[in-house]
Amino acid sequence: MSEQTETNERTETHDVGEPSAQWREYQGAPTGSDIECKGWRQEAALRMLNNNLDPDVGEKPKDLVVYGGTGRAARSWDAYDAIVTELRDLDDDETLLVQSGKPVGRFTTHERAPRVLIANSNLVGKWDDWEHFHELEAKGLIMYGQMTAGSWAYIGTQGIIQGTYETLAALADEHFAGDLRGKIVVTGGLGGMGGAQPLSVTMNHGVCIAAEVDESRIDRRIETGYCMEKTDDLDEAIANATEAAEAGEPYSIGVHINAADMLEGMLNRDFVPDVITDQTSAHDELEGYYPSGYTVEEAGKLRDVNSEKYVEESLDTMARHVQGILDIQDAGAIAFEYGNNIRGQVKEHRGMEHAFDFPGFVPAYIRPLFCQGKGPFRWAALSGNPADIHRTDEAVVELFPEKEQLHRWIDLAQEQVEFQGLPSRVCWLGYDTDDDGLTERARFALRINELVADGEIGAPIVVTRDHLDAGSVASPNRETEAMRDDSDAIADWPILNALLNCAAGADIVSVHDGGGVGIGNALHTNNHVILDGSDLAAEKARRVFTTDPGMGVIRHADAGYDVALDQAKKSNVRIPMRDTE
User: Fold this and answer.
1) What average pLDDT does this structure show over 528-556?
2) DSSP assigned state of 60
């Protein structure tokens, strides 16, 4: 069989079908206070699934692709229709099982059990690699769920914006006395995750130059206020960025260029930024990353007719890309990888042993927050009414009057972050307990549940988070890179996180392989709790928003981090063997 035939066969067998008539009618999440399911927990799942596939939220919704190369919300359009049908008919004491985007079972459980359990992309260790995954994907047996794509928790670029903001704020605190004013940050990738970078830089008063091969992505970021300008001219980008930095003005520009080419161009011009990073979809060398020398259209044709050549050229470009980051670091810039596994790719496939000579963002800047149970806690207004999110903004500020950085974030978000799909917000809340033993997340959730019950918020709020959270991921090249006790690859922790959140009563729980670093490189979990104003919702919120951030505390305490041990002691987190020492 020829390579041409093999490629075509793979493409044909992986066809997701024609977009569903139901999806065409929805074109995003249903909104308002009327529901089409038997309860709000089922309705929330239906709305969040459709929010993922809102054309203003997902990257390629007609292909069921939400973000991150091939991260899908459902395996096929037939599977999507079946999920919608099952959610509409699901009783308050039943649980729907979804295996890699396909509904496969429905059982009577009880009303405190999750309404939906999801597992995506998981493979047994010996077979846990892209080769086996693609074989199964071609047979229609599995799909790539990315992180929030397959767990129906994606909220567009507004979902990653605070995490990127917090990372850059931590970088500024460590290296630049708390501010990026007058500093230039260079990066690549303006897709679903990377698209938050320019705005996150300018929110920290800095200047951003971002490379992106797909011009439509630059246009989208400009339309939604995440990026200010675009150009095809690297000299123009450097000149504009330098002028803005010298004036101390926030500024961002998207450059229509391959990131590896841009970095080499900067080195040839002796231009050294203050910070260098990257957020291209390098975890997926076939579907997520673009080799140098091709337009988007040309790359698409090469991918279709000769996927092997595409992968080889993609990896060659990644090697140049990483070398460019290293060279710019050697010239004086601060460098870090932003979680796309580009270092791991070139070390494994191109033998670049020095690829890890610059750190990942978690060990460099975020781990102390994880030790305290802090992470990207997020919520969406099922009413579709922005006023409901504004009321939650007021509530979070009222609950935490002492958190000045949180207040600044809320002000910035209200001014600069455009809603996509269901109005949503993200805040990094953690485990700190009050006199009643309630964590920050639990206090917030209980207050929002009261506001729904009192009619101050027009419909239930669904609270979820990114998979990239304090205790929900094992990812040796990202979240658990360089753990103090060398426990980077131990995946028991996310499994315990999912099991515990089921026991605590989360309404949706999911377990995925891969995420932003690729098949075989991570295991991670997520959960949703629907705040519908009921006593049951309050009961669930009190438990889940203790167990979930608590996993971050115990995971890092077990690894020996003093910050986590102090947090456990301060907040009365029971750690058996530590407590008896």
Assistant:
1) 97
2) B
Give whole-number Cα distances, 498 to 67, 105, 490, in Å. 23, 19, 15
Q: Are the beta carbons of 241 and 197 closer than 8 angstroms?
A: no
Contact 244, 250 (CB under 8 A): yes
Q: Kindly give, in sequence order, each residue whose CB lies less than 8 Å from that of residue 353, ignoring residues fewer than 6 positions away.
A: 347
pLDDT of residue 162: 86
pLDDT of residue 68: 84
Query: Quick check: is 371 catalytic?
Result: no
pLDDT of residue 13: 45
Please tell me the predicted confidence (pLDDT) of residue 158.
Answer: 85
Report the pLDDT value the prediction gives residue 579, as an integer from 0 to 100: 57
| CA nearest neighbour of 377 among 262, 535, 528 | 528
- pLDDT, one tens digit per residue, over 124-154 is 999 999 999 999 999 999 999 999 999 999 9
Q: Whole-angstrom Cα distance, residue 21 to residue 24?
A: 5
Which amino acid, residue 542?
Answer: R
The structure tokens listed for 68 are: 């991150």
Q: What is the DSSP string of 315-337?
A: HHHHHHHHHHHHHHHHTT-EE-B
Which position among 37, 208, 227, 427 bears the catalytic label? 427
Percent of residues in the chain assigned helix, strand, coil, to nearest 5: 45, 15, 40
For the stretch 63-87, what's the b/e string if a residue is b when 16 or more beta carbons lie within 10 angstroms of its beta carbon?
ebbbbbbbbbbbbbbebbbbbbebb
**Phi-psi region for residue 463, left (φ > 0), alpha (ψ -120 to 50) or beta?**
beta
Contacts of 343 (CB under 8 A, 6+ apart): 322, 337, 355, 356, 358, 360, 477
DSSP secondary-structure letter at 191?
S
Q: How much is the pLDDT for 75?
A: 98
> Residue 340: CB partners within 8 Å, gap ≥ 6?
189, 278, 279, 280, 281, 282, 283, 516, 517
d(CA 144, CA 518): 9
